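[Automated response] Your request has been received and processed.

Submitted sequence:
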Amino acid sequence: MQTLATILLVIVSISLIAVVLLQSGKSAGLSGAISGGAEQLVGKQKARGIDAVLSKATVVLAVLFFVLTVTVAYFL
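Generated structure:
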């Protein structure tokens, strides 16, 4: 069981890294870094298309990563 959980953890980790790297940046440069956070909180635009899919995949993979990490740590 520990070997299976470890293998799944490696697969989910690599997938999570790939999904995060595929996402487009929300802002560019220093001015975007300052105003980007407020715009994200106040803005009403939702991600569409591939950005929405990647965003949802990031959440799912992050939850799987957390659960598998706790599982592997439990079996050690």
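Summary generated for your ticket: The chain is about 80% helix and 0% strand. Helices lie at 2-22, 29-42, 50-75.
If you did not submit this request, please reply to this message.
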